[in-house]
Amino acid sequence: MGSDRTDALVVGAGPNGLAAAVVLAAAGLSVRVLEAAHRIGGGCRTEELTLPGFRHDVCSAAHPMAAASPFFRRFGLETHGARLLQPAVPFAHPLGEDRVVAAHRGVDETAASFGRDDRRAYRRLLGPLAGETDALAAAVLSSHRTVPAGARTGARLVASGWRSTESLARRFEGTGPRALLAGAGAHAMLPLTTPVTGGIALFLTSLAHGVGWPVVEGGSAGIVAAMAAFLADRGAAVVTGEPVRSLRGLPAARVVLLDVSPRGLLAIAGDQLPDRYARQLRRFRYGPGVCKVDWALDGPVPWSAHTCRRAGTVHVGGTLEEVGAAQADVARGRHPERPFVLAVQPGVVDPTRAPAGKQTLGTYCHVPAGSDWDMSEAIASQVERFAPGFRDLVLAKSARSAARMEAENANYVGGDIGCGLQDARQTLARPAARWNPYRVPLRGLYLCSSATPPGPGVHGRCGELAAMWALRDEFGIRSAELMCSPAASTT
């Protein structure tokens, strides 16, 4: 690894680790990033998983949080080469035959297909949130320890969002709006009866109206490529194929930031951590896993509901009751026969993902933690249910069980791509019950993974917030502003 002392060492080159490195490098520090895998990005990568010319996102695929993130707004993703493409429809939810409910960019356009009372209820619920997306993102994508600029808007979200998705859906009479909330709330990877899943449903749906659910031109890897290019311009070193097994084996640095799970932190530093903190890390709870299946197709998915053919993301699962049953099965340790499937079809707006006339489809469903089941058949059956003829288009597929997801990315404990359960308690106390969740109780050591607030998603805020504390504590730098303009990023 070499012996040259650097100001800051970052372990892990996922989106949060790279975001931390960007903040540190922007402050003028010498920075070095170590990544165990042979490619940077963690779950934010793009590879030819099936056939030559078919580019699939390894995990993260649609990026509403990247579009809304205060960090990426300051950084300027598009300025640094990552172009966000907006599908005509952010997300859709088929209900059988040609019936569909969809989150359009406009609240009124979305509500137009609802009954009169449901139209009014939807406008009252989503209108104020969708109209203040920047403030909402500032409130939600925060440390949850201070009063952010979007506190008033955040309070609106909390007023309804502490409830479960199922409870929130009772505001509506029709199947459509209830299913729309169910699909968004299921991203929490929890039963729809769990408190705070309603907040996740409202936040994600508000982002659909406010910033869309874009995909990255060429693949999600474009996000990490933009950050890596910035770091290269600042002279920061990013080293791949360099696993870290112990703090004692690290090169000398004034601060070390770890983009690892609590389990990974225990493995690297467990014998040096205070007993109380180590016990809290051991009690950290992980959520269900996912089975990810990527498909190379001979053409677009033949959704019966044509609105789905214009959507970047399709929530496949039927009614709220059906989605709820699938989520409950997973929570009980069962593999659902009819899983809730999250499907992303970037080809609706990005022709670079597959050869001419072909398409890619990325899907995953929730499964019990650590599952080694291949859910390809169950996923295909669900898609075929709402898109007859889908199977006839399949040229090849790549399936990765929850167990394999963990084997490929140690942060995905049990296949949990959220790096920790997202219930009310653990949303606030990630990864331990401490006022400052980023400081590890060892001098100069910080945690910057999505096991810290604000939690999962490609938004970079966990890395940014951890890096800001490191700058303040160890270097006396208090400015939160990034100097990431093109002029500032060139040497």
List the helices and strands and how they pair.
Layout: E1 6-11, H1 15-26, E2 31-34, E3 46-47, E4 56-57, H2 64-68, H3 70-75, E5 84-85, E6 89-96, E7 99-103, H4 107-111, H5 116-130, H6 133-140, H7 151-161, H8 165-169, H9 175-185, H10 197-210, E8 215-216, H11 221-233, E9 237-239, E10 253-258, H12 262-269, H13 275-283, E11 289-297, E12 311-316, H14 320-331, E13 341-344, E14 359-367, H15 376-386, H16 390-393, E15 394-400, H17 402-408, H18 424-428, E16 445-447, H19 461-475
Parallel strand pairs: 1-2, 1-10, 2-9, 6-12, 10-16
Antiparallel strand pairs: 3-4, 5-8, 6-7, 11-14, 11-15, 12-13, 13-14
| Cα separation of the termini | 25 Å
Radius of gyration: 21 Å
Strand content: 15-25%
What class, by secondary structure content? Answer: alpha/beta
**Largest sheet, described in full?**
7 strands, mixed
Shape: globular
State the name of the first-level CATH class of the domain at 6-55 and 218-285 and 411-475: Alpha Beta
Count up the helices. Answer: 19
The residue ranges in which pLDDT falls below 50 over 5 or more consecutive positions are 483-491
CATH fold topology of the domain at 6-55 and 218-285 and 411-475:
FAD/NAD(P)-binding domain
| Number of E-state strands | 16
Gross CATH architecture of the domain at 6-55 and 218-285 and 411-475: 3-Layer(bba) Sandwich
Helix content: 25-40%
CATH superfamily of the domain at 6-55 and 218-285 and 411-475: FAD/NAD(P)-binding domain
Q: If strands are numbered along the chain, what order do they take across the biggest sheet? A: 7-6-12-13-14-11-15
Overall mean confidence score, pLDDT? 93
